[in-house]
Amino acid sequence: MTVRITLVAPAVNAALREARFDDDGPLEEAGRAHASSVRRSWGVREEAVFSSPTARCRETALALGLETAEPLAALAGCAMGRWRGRSLAEVADEEGESVAAWLSDPGAAPHGGESLRALRERVGGWLDTPRPAGRLLAVAEPDVVRAAVVHALGTDDRTFWRLDVRPLAAVHLTGRSGRWNLRLGEPSAGPGTAEADA
Which of 5, 47, 118, 125 could cysteine-pair with 134, CB 3.0–4.6 Å? Predict the structure, then answer.
């Protein structure tokens, strides 16, 4: 009984472009157009479609033609407390020691929100939820995609910082009996197409 999960990062919005902690802002027109162009190359045939509850993920799902995407709290981005909407550079100028602690200790949450370890545990719990065999796709915040990969591979939580997730990048996880595999090297046709599954 194999479960195939495709995680797609959202298209660009101002917070992503400006390297700010998400403030639930909408997609930019360029991001929406990019997602729409990607949509044309996908033959999506997932049985279930979800999204992070943020505006940029929900709007990316719509631009990709995934009108039935169900927002899930388990796929919410890391709660960043008082840093929400601020850039990392700005926060580092004001709270250098707090940022250093956050970047070096996955259990730290100096911003008053959620630690990266707590994020990974939450996302890992969603990944490991028993479900019938089949395909599902989720448009998920970049930090959720990172947390999913760290959990799936069983790596140290500090690996989170070594993963880059670009806008509209797709990550493919295949699971069976509590074990996950990461599939790399997707053909240009995109996820869920006959070419991609060959």
Answer: 47
